[in-house]
Amino acid sequence: MQGPKCGDQQDPLFHFCFGQDNYTETSPYGSNLNALINLLYAKVPPTGFGLGSVGQDQNRVNGLALCRGDVSSTDCRTCVIDASKEIRERCPCKKGAIIWYDNCLFKYSDVEFFGKIDNSNKFYMFNIQNVNDPTPFNQKTKDLLSDLASKAYVSPVLYATGELELEDSKTLYGLVQCTRDLSSADCKKCLDGAISELPSCCDGKQGGRVVGGSCNFRYEIYPFVNA
């Protein structure tokens, strides 16, 4: 039997467990969560996004999954499967949870959250290397991400990537994305809010991300998007 190849299994970036109530695996909520996960397995990979609800009243479970805009449907499906397994191991019996990977995010809750900006589930990541001249670099990073936000919110998939030439023949690369349950206006609002956190997250850093439940951005001084 052949073992897994390097890179097949990615580690999650971060996760949160939330919700006031717990459930048991054999409860109606547990069964509905399994049904929702099966629904998202089928729904998400073809377009990179899907949402759904299963059940009624207190046993109703709502969920969505989003794959990064440059990820193939095969890698998207792999990520959604990995995420759904990992989140139940990390948040056993919690009625609400969210997990992020490089290639996808997966979220479920007993509270319907579709169409609402999620500001409560958020984290930062940054490159530990600093740039030599932070003030102009910070401004150019903000300019690039703001430009991409203006492109993403009018895009059908609420996603945009781009690059900006820096001095010394270097290039700054950026990506922004929203979950597609948001309206265009709320996508722009979410991204503008995330970009406003640049000074807190990534001041003078060669790369960084603000990642939330409804939108995220990433920038680096090396290419990281699949062509």
UniProtKB/TrEMBL annotation:
PANTHER family: CYSTEINE-RICH REPEAT SECRETORY PROTEIN 38, CYSTEINE-RICH REPEAT SECRETORY PROTEIN 38-RELATED
Cellular component aspect of the GO annotation: extracellular region
Location within or outside the cell: Secreted
Chief location of this protein within or outside the cell: secreted
Family, per entry: Belongs to the cysteine-rich repeat secretory protein family.
Keyword annotations of the record: Glycoprotein, Repeat, Secreted, Signal
All copies of domain Gnk2-homologous, residue ranges: 11-113, 119-224
Organism annotation: Nyssa sinensis
Name assigned to this protein: Gnk2-homologous domain-containing protein
Cited Pfam families: Stress-antifung
